[in-house]
Design brief:
The protein is of the alpha+beta class. Helix content is 30%, strand content 26%. Strand 1 (32-40) and strand 2 form a beta hairpin. Tetrahydrodeoxyuridine (THU) is lined by residues 27, 30, 32, 34, 50, 52, 59, 61-63, 102-103, 106.
């Protein structure tokens, strides 16, 4: 049997939770459901899903919703990893073959949590059909980030 790195097991668990969260997406406009799941340093998992509204542009991404929930719990600095998945909403479920990457705004918000926790956040990007999962670091997806340090806040 092939050896699965322990971190990828964590990634799979996060993608599963993200897929579950995506079932509750409020996305009647794009019909594109996204789920996210944060892993905290004590093993807690915090889910999020996209939350659209009739003004379109004011929609909230799944990652941002999850990060805001972590913040409500006072846990922003404890975020270690995030799993993200998404796809088209169909009559039979969420469909997609390509892994979903966080948008630019969500990368910036992830950077806030990374800075608070003084760690690079692991980002697992999954496809809705479960066939693909890619592991990245936030520093790869958001190089030369603007952060609290640029404002003299450490
Ligand atoms: N979306 C997310 O939830 N996360 C991302 O990183 C990219 C996009 C949502 C926003 C909108 O509800 C839908 O996907 C289509 O753009």
């Amino acid at each position: 049997m092939a050896e699965v790195p322990i971190e990828d097991v964590a990634g799979r668990v996060l993608i599963d939770h993200a897929l579950d969260a995506a079932k509750n997406a409020h996305a009647p406009y794009s019909r594109f459901a996204v789920g996210a799941a944060l892993l905290l340093d004590d093993g807690t998992i915090i889910p999020g899903t996209n939350f659209e509204n009739a003004s379109y542009g004011l929609s909230l991404c799944a990652e941002t919703v999850a990060l805001a929930a972590a913040n409500v719990a006072g846990r922003l600095k404890h975020v270690v990893a995030i799993g993200i998945v998404g796809g088209a909403m169909t009559a039979t479920g969420i469909e997609g073959e390509t892994p979903i990457y966080p948008c630019g705004r969500c990368r910036q918000i992830l950077n806030e949590a990374a800075d608070m926790g003084r760690r690079d956040i692991i980002i697992y990007c999954g496809s809705a059909d479960g066939a693909v999962m890619r592991r990245h670091l936030l520093s790869e997806l958001l190089p030369f980030a603007f952060g609290p340090g640029d404002l003299g806040i450490s």
